[in-house]
C-alpha cells in the first residue's frame, strides 16, 4: 500500500506540467541500462542516449548524473504526426533519468495526455493510442526504476 501511495504522489507532483516521474531504486547508470534493455527487448527503436553530465564535464562544468533516452515506434508515432504535425517537436518520446538534489534517481517523461492536449490531437486520430502510449511508457519507466 505504501508503494502505491508513493507512486501516486510522485506522479501527481508533475501532473500540472505534463510530466510523470518515478523515483528509482537504482542509480542513473543502472536505471538507464534497465530502460535501454527493456526498449531493446520490446523492439522499440532506440535513437540515442544523451549524457548531459558528460556534456557539462566537456565544457569544464559539473553536473549531477543526467541521461536523456530518446526512443520511439514509427508505427505509433507516424499516424499521430500525420494528424498533428507539431507532435514532431515532442516525438520521438524521451525519458530523462537524473539525480536530484536529494541524491535520488528520478525517471521523468511527458504524459501522452499532456502531449495530445498540447498539440491539439483530434479525438478521431488513432483512437485508443493515447491510453496505449500511456500504459507502455508507464511500464517502461516503472521497470527502469525497479517498481513493480
Walk me through what this model shows.
This protein is α+β, with helices and mostly antiparallel strands and 148 residues long. The protein has a single domain (2-143), classed as TATA-Binding Protein. It has six helices and five strands. It has helices at 2-14, 28-41, 52-58, 74-83, 112-118, 129-145, and strands spanning 19-23, 45-51, 66-72, 93-99, 105-110. Strands 1-5-4-3-2 form a five-stranded antiparallel beta sheet. β4 (93-99) and β5 form a beta hairpin. It is globular. The two termini are 12 Å apart.
Kindly list the characteristics that best describe this protein:
148 residues; TATA-Binding Protein; 5-stranded antiparallel sheet
> What's the helix count?
6
The average pLDDT score comes to 91
**What proportion strand?**
15-25%
Order of helices and strands: HEHEHEHEEHH
CATH architect. name: 2-Layer Sandwich
Instruction: Categorize the overall geometry.
Output: globular
The helical percent reads: 40-55%
CATH class: Alpha Beta
Q: What is the CATH T-level topology?
A: TATA-Binding Protein
Strand order of the largest sheet: 1-5-4-3-2
Structural class: alpha+beta
What is the CATH H-level superfamily?
A: TT1751-like domain
Largest β-sheet summary = 5 strands, antiparallel
Q: Would you report the number of β strands? A: 5
- Unreliable sequence segments: 4-14
Distance between the termini: 12 Å
What's the number of domains?
A: 1
Rounded radius of gyration (Å): 16 Å
